[in-house]
Write a structure and sequence with these properties.
This protein is α/β, with parallel strands linked by helices. The protein is 31% helix and 25% strand. The strands form 3 sheets. The protein has a 9-stranded mixed beta sheet with strand order 16-15-14-13-7-12-11-8-17. Strands 3-2-1-4-5-6 form a 6-stranded parallel beta sheet, sandwiched between helices.
Length: 390
C-alpha cells in the first residue's frame, strides 16, 4: 500500500560503524559533533559511519544537553571511564589546551585511535610525550588542523607540488582577530587571556604555522617577536588582573628549501573577526587565499597566454578536491566543512587502515608546530634567530 509506513532497520545497514567517544563539550566539541553527524549525508560513498557513543564533561547539565542535541548515546563525567568503554574505537579530545596530554596518552595506551584539537599541547615537552605515546601504541592520530582540508588549500598544495609556480620564493601568512582590541574589555571575554590563557600564538598562530609547512615545506629557522599590549585588564567585578598571554606576534621564516616567509597572528586587529589570509610567490606564478572568501583561490601563472592578472578560481565547482557531493556545483559551504573533511578523512583512515599523513596533520605535525612556536617565543625573548631542532 502506498500509505504504509516502512521502518528502517539501521542495524541491517551494510556499512562499517565506528564508535566515537568525545572528551569535551564546548565550542570545539560542538564543531566536531556537528561534523560527525554530517558525514553520512555529505558523502554517500563513505566507507564507514561514525557512531556517537559517548561524550564526557564534568558539568552534568551541560554535557547531558550536548549529548541530547547532537545525538550521543550517553555521557560520562570521568574521561577515564569513557576511554575504558570497550565499545569506543576513536577518542576525540576537544578539551581546553592544557587538558589534552593525559587523556591522549591514556587513550593511546588503551589502544584507541586518537583525534586531538590544536594546538597539540601547551609545551613541546607535552607534545613530545603525546607523540611518543601514539607511536608506541601503534594507533592512528590526527591533530585537527582543519584548514588543510578546505578545497582551495588542497588545490594550492597540488599546484605547488606540480611545479606550476616554479621555484617558491616566499610565503606570507596572517591570522587576525579583534577580541582584545579594547583595554577595558573584561578578561573573561577574551578567549586567549582567560581559562588556559594559551595566547594568540598557540590559539590561531599555530594554524598559520601548519599552513606554511603544509604548502611550502619544513621551516628551518625563525626570528620572532611577541607582544602583550595590555598587561592588566579588569575582570567582571572590576578588579585588575594580570595578562601574561601574548596578544600579537610576528616571525620571519626560513624554509629548508631556501624560501623565506612572514607570519603574523593577532588578537587586537580591530575590525577582524576571523581573518586568515596567505600568499605564495614563485618564479612562474603566485597564489593567494582568504578564509572570508573560502570558495576561491586566486591564481597567477605564466601559462595564462600572456594576460597578466590573478584568476579567481572557484573551488566549489564539480570535480574540485573534496567537493561536498550533495551540493550542486557552485553552491557554497561554510567554515564547518574543514572539520567535516578532516574527520571524514580520519574515520576512513581507521576503517581502511590507511595512513593519516601527509593529507591530514598527525601528532608529528602538531609536535613540529609546537617546536616552531616555542622557538618564536625564545627568539622574541633573546633577540636571536633560532634554528629549529626536532
Amino acid at each position: 500500500m502506498l500509505d504504509q509506513f516502512v521502518a528502517i532497520d539501521r542495524g541491517a545497514l551494510d556499512v562499517r560503524r565506528i564508535a566515537i567517544g568525545m572528551i569535551g563539550h564546548g565550542f570545539m566539541g560542538a564543531a566536531h559533533a556537528n561534523a560527525f553527524q554530517k558525514l553520512p549525508g555529505a558523502f554517500p560513498d563513505l566507507r564507514a559511519w561514525p557512531d556517537l557513543v559517548a561524550i564526557c564533561g564534568r558539568d552534568s547539565a551541560r554535557v547531558a544537553d550536548v549529548a541530547l542535541r547532537f545525538g550521543f548515546g550517553g555521557y560520562y563525567k570521568d574521561w577515564r571511564a569513557l576511554i575504558g568503554d570497550p565499545r569506543i574505537e576513536i577518542v576525540d579530545v576537544v578539551t581546553p589546551d592544557d587538558r589534552h596530554r593525559d587523556p591522549v596518552i591514556a587513550a593511546a595506551a588503551a589502544g584507541r585511535h586518537v583525534i586531538c584539537e590544536k594546538p597539540l599541547a601547551m609545551t613541546v615537552t607535552d607534545a613530545a610525550a603525546m607523540l611518543e605515546a601514539v607511536e608506541r601504541a601503534g594507533v592512528k592520530h590526527l591533530c585537527c588542523f582543519s584548514y588543510r582540508f578546505l578545497p582551495a588549500v588542497r588545490l594550492a598544495r597540488e599546484l605547488v607540488a606540480s611545479g606550476a609556480l616554479g621555484r617558491i620564493y616566499h610565503f606570507r601568512g596572517r591570522y587576525l582577530q579583534q577580541p582584545g582590541r579594547d583595554p577595558s574589555t573584561p578578561v573573561e571575554d577574551i578567549w586567549y587571556a582567560t581559562g588556559t590563557a594559551s595566547g594568540v600564538l598557540l590559539g590561531i598562530g599555530s594554524h598559520i604555522i601548519d599552513m606554511a609547512r603544509f604548502l611550502v615545506g619544513e621551516i628551518a629557522s625563525v626570528s620572532g617577536l611577541t607582544r602583550t599590549y595590555t598587561p592588566t585588564r579588569p575582570d567582571r567585578s572590576g578588579a585588575l588582573r594580570p595578562v601574561t598571554a601574548d596578544e600579537g606576534n610576528m616571525a620571519l621564516l626560513e624554509f629548508a628549501s631556501g624560501a623565506t616567509g612572514t607570519i603574523e597572528s593577532s588578537g587586537v586587529a580591530t575590525g577582524r573577526q576571523n581573518g586568515q589570509t596567505w600568499e605564495i610567490s614563485g618564479s612562474l606564478g603566485s597564489l593567494w587565499w582568504d578564509l572570508e572568501d573560502p570558495h576561491h583561490l586566486h591564481v597567477w601563472t605564466e601559462a595564462d597566454g600572456g594576460i597578466r592578472g590573478f584568476t579567481n578560481v572557484s573551488v566549489s565547482d564539480q570535480g574540485s578536491p573534496h567537493q561536498v557531493v550533495y551540493l550542486p556545483p557552485g553552491h557554497n559551504w561554510g567554515w564547518e566543512y574543514g572539520h567535516v573533511y578532516a574527520l571524514r578523512h580520519f574515520v576512513e583512515c581507521v576503517a581502511m587502515d590507511r595512513p593519516v599523513g601527509p593529507e591530514g596533520a598527525t601528532f608529528e605535525d602538531g609536535y613540529r608546530a609546537q617546536v616552531t612556536m616555542e622557538a618564536i617565543v625564545a627568539s622574541s625573548r633573546t633577540g636571536r634567530r633560532i634554528n629549529l631542532k626536532y
